Amino acid sequence: MEQDEFIRLVAERAHVTEEQARALTRATMLTLGERITGGQARDLADALPPEIAPPLIMPQEMAQKFDLAEFVRRVSERAGVDETTARDGVRAVFMTLRDAIPGKEFQDAMDQLPNEFQEI
Asked: In percent, how much of the chain has pLDDT > 90?
Protein backbone atom coordinates (compact mmCIF):
# COMPACT_ATOMS: atom_id res chain seq x y z
CA MET A 1 0.00 0.00 0.00
CA GLU A 2 1.32 3.45 -0.93
CA GLN A 3 1.48 6.37 1.49
CA ASP A 4 -1.25 8.36 -0.29
CA GLU A 5 -3.68 5.44 -0.15
CA PHE A 6 -2.86 4.81 3.52
CA ILE A 7 -3.54 8.46 4.42
CA ARG A 8 -6.70 8.57 2.29
CA LEU A 9 -8.08 5.49 4.07
CA VAL A 10 -7.26 6.94 7.50
CA ALA A 11 -8.98 10.21 6.54
CA GLU A 12 -12.10 8.40 5.33
CA ARG A 13 -12.29 6.07 8.31
CA ALA A 14 -11.71 8.80 10.90
CA HIS A 15 -13.84 11.39 9.06
CA VAL A 16 -11.02 13.94 9.07
CA THR A 17 -9.07 15.89 6.46
CA GLU A 18 -6.01 14.33 4.86
CA GLU A 19 -3.85 16.84 6.76
CA GLN A 20 -5.34 15.66 10.05
CA ALA A 21 -4.99 12.04 8.90
CA ARG A 22 -1.25 12.60 8.36
CA ALA A 23 -0.89 14.07 11.86
CA LEU A 24 -2.96 11.26 13.41
CA THR A 25 -1.01 8.61 11.53
CA ARG A 26 2.35 10.02 12.62
CA ALA A 27 1.18 10.42 16.24
CA THR A 28 -0.27 6.90 16.32
CA MET A 29 2.89 5.37 14.84
CA LEU A 30 5.08 7.23 17.33
CA THR A 31 2.91 6.12 20.24
CA LEU A 32 2.70 2.54 18.97
CA GLY A 33 6.50 2.54 18.67
CA GLU A 34 6.68 3.40 22.38
CA ARG A 35 4.16 0.71 23.33
CA ILE A 36 5.58 -2.33 21.46
CA THR A 37 9.06 -3.85 21.49
CA GLY A 38 11.75 -2.53 19.16
CA GLY A 39 11.90 -5.77 17.20
CA GLN A 40 8.18 -5.80 16.57
CA ALA A 41 8.25 -2.11 15.59
CA ARG A 42 10.96 -2.84 13.02
CA ASP A 43 8.93 -5.76 11.63
CA LEU A 44 5.92 -3.48 11.17
CA ALA A 45 8.04 -0.70 9.70
CA ASP A 46 9.47 -3.10 7.11
CA ALA A 47 5.94 -3.78 5.81
CA LEU A 48 4.87 -0.12 5.61
CA PRO A 49 5.47 2.66 3.09
CA PRO A 50 8.84 4.26 3.91
CA GLU A 51 7.20 7.65 4.52
CA ILE A 52 4.95 6.22 7.26
CA ALA A 53 7.31 3.84 9.06
CA PRO A 54 10.02 6.06 10.68
CA PRO A 55 8.05 7.17 13.78
CA LEU A 56 7.67 3.51 14.78
CA ILE A 57 11.40 3.06 15.35
CA MET A 58 12.43 4.07 18.87
CA PRO A 59 15.97 4.09 20.27
CA GLN A 60 14.95 1.78 23.13
CA GLU A 61 14.06 -1.88 22.65
CA MET A 62 11.74 -2.23 25.66
CA ALA A 63 8.05 -1.45 25.36
CA GLN A 64 6.54 1.10 27.73
CA LYS A 65 3.52 -0.09 29.68
CA PHE A 66 0.47 2.14 29.36
CA ASP A 67 -3.22 1.63 28.72
CA LEU A 68 -5.53 2.63 25.90
CA ALA A 69 -6.56 5.89 27.59
CA GLU A 70 -2.91 6.97 27.82
CA PHE A 71 -2.31 5.88 24.22
CA VAL A 72 -5.20 8.07 23.04
CA ARG A 73 -4.08 10.95 25.26
CA ARG A 74 -0.59 10.86 23.73
CA VAL A 75 -1.97 10.72 20.20
CA SER A 76 -4.31 13.62 20.99
CA GLU A 77 -1.46 15.76 22.29
CA ARG A 78 0.91 14.90 19.44
CA ALA A 79 -1.65 15.37 16.66
CA GLY A 80 -3.13 18.50 18.19
CA VAL A 81 -6.68 17.14 18.24
CA ASP A 82 -9.26 16.42 20.95
CA GLU A 83 -9.40 12.94 22.48
CA THR A 84 -12.53 11.89 20.55
CA THR A 85 -10.82 12.70 17.25
CA ALA A 86 -7.65 10.99 18.49
CA ARG A 87 -9.59 7.82 19.40
CA ASP A 88 -11.27 7.80 15.98
CA GLY A 89 -7.86 8.38 14.39
CA VAL A 90 -6.21 5.55 16.32
CA ARG A 91 -9.04 3.23 15.26
CA ALA A 92 -8.65 4.33 11.62
CA VAL A 93 -4.87 3.89 11.67
CA PHE A 94 -5.15 0.42 13.24
CA MET A 95 -7.77 -0.61 10.65
CA THR A 96 -5.50 0.62 7.87
CA LEU A 97 -2.49 -1.13 9.38
CA ARG A 98 -4.50 -4.35 9.43
CA ASP A 99 -5.17 -3.90 5.70
CA ALA A 100 -1.59 -2.89 4.84
CA ILE A 101 0.43 -5.42 6.84
CA PRO A 102 0.53 -9.20 6.47
CA GLY A 103 -1.79 -10.77 9.05
CA LYS A 104 0.87 -12.36 11.24
CA GLU A 105 2.90 -9.17 11.68
CA PHE A 106 -0.16 -7.11 12.55
CA GLN A 107 -1.41 -9.78 14.97
CA ASP A 108 2.03 -10.05 16.62
CA ALA A 109 1.93 -6.30 17.31
CA MET A 110 -1.64 -6.47 18.63
CA ASP A 111 -0.65 -9.34 20.93
CA GLN A 112 1.73 -6.93 22.72
CA LEU A 113 -1.14 -4.57 23.57
CA PRO A 114 -3.63 -4.98 26.43
CA ASN A 115 -6.98 -6.59 25.61
CA GLU A 116 -8.73 -3.21 25.83
CA PHE A 117 -7.11 -2.32 22.48
CA GLN A 118 -9.39 -4.89 20.86
CA GLU A 119 -12.26 -2.41 21.23
CA ILE A 120 -10.38 -0.11 18.85
From this structure: 78
CB 23, CB 81: distance < 8 Å:
yes
Contacts of 12-19 with C-beta under 8 Å, sequence gap 24+, read: 12/92, 13/88, 13/91, 13/92, 13/95, 13/96, 14/85, 14/88, 14/89, 14/91, 14/92, 15/88, 16/81, 16/85, 16/88, 16/89
For domain 3-114, say whether CATH 1.10.490.110 is its number. yes
Contact (CB, 8 A) for 43 and 108: yes
pLDDT 10s digits, 42-52: 999 999 989 99
